[in-house]
């Protein structure tokens, strides 16, 4: 399993925790280790721009997911990309009196479920 993480250095996130959460969620979903997933933590402007471009929606999303349909990257199959808006996560955590890590794990689960439930994936997950 290859988990790529990109984030602004201003965001207080631990790659180790994020990777552990992704592995746990994928295991629960029955996904094997031969996949690559990319997680990007972005600001509000980039999240809004991506939502406008890819979904034609004019609001700042907490999370977006983009399936790669199992294309190959060396020996790994590309599961897809997940984009999480860190300022939105922080605001939600404060509003709901929760830890930022809890909200991130919830959004990772949502994004990963979206990637693996894509109908084109069903045959490739085995």
Amount of helix = 40-55%
What percent of residues are in strands?
15-25%
Can you tell me the overall shape? globular
Name the helix and strand elements from N-terminus to C-terminus, one letter apiece. Answer: EHEHEEEHH
CATH class: Alpha Beta
Describe the structure in your own words.
The chain has 126 residues and is an alpha/beta fold. It has one domain: 3-Layer(aba) Sandwich (Collagenase (Catalytic Domain)). Helix content is 43%, strand content 25%. It has four helices and five strands; from the N terminus they run βαβαβββαα. Strands 1, 2, 3, 4 and 5 form a five-stranded mixed β-sheet that branches. The longest helix has 18 residues. The chain starts with a strand and ends in a 9-residue tail after the last helix.
Features:
126 residues, alpha/beta, Collagenase (Catalytic Domain)
Topology:
Elements: E1 2-7, H1 15-28, E2 35-42, H2 44-55, E3 63-67, E4 72-73, E5 76-85, H3 86-95, H4 100-117
Parallel strand pairs: 1-2, 2-5
Antiparallel strand pairs: 3-5, 4-5
Helix pairs in contact: 1-4, 3-4
């Amino acid at each position: 399993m290859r988990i790529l993480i990109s984030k602004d250095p201003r965001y207080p996130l631990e790659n180790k925790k994020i990777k552990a959460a992704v592995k746990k969620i994928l295991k629960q979903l029955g996904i094997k280790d031969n996949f690559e997933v990319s997680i990007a933590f972005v600001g509000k402007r980039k999240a809004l721009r991506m939502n406008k471009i890819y979904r034609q929606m004019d609001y700042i999303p907490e999370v977006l997911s983009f399936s790669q349909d199992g294309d190959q990257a060396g020996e790994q199959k590309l599961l897809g990309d997940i984009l999480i808006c860190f300022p939105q996560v922080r605001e939600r955590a404060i509003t709901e009196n929760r830890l930022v890590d809890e909200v991130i794990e919830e959004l990772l689960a949502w994004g990963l479920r979206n990637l693996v439930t894509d109908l084109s994936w069903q045959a490739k997950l085995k």
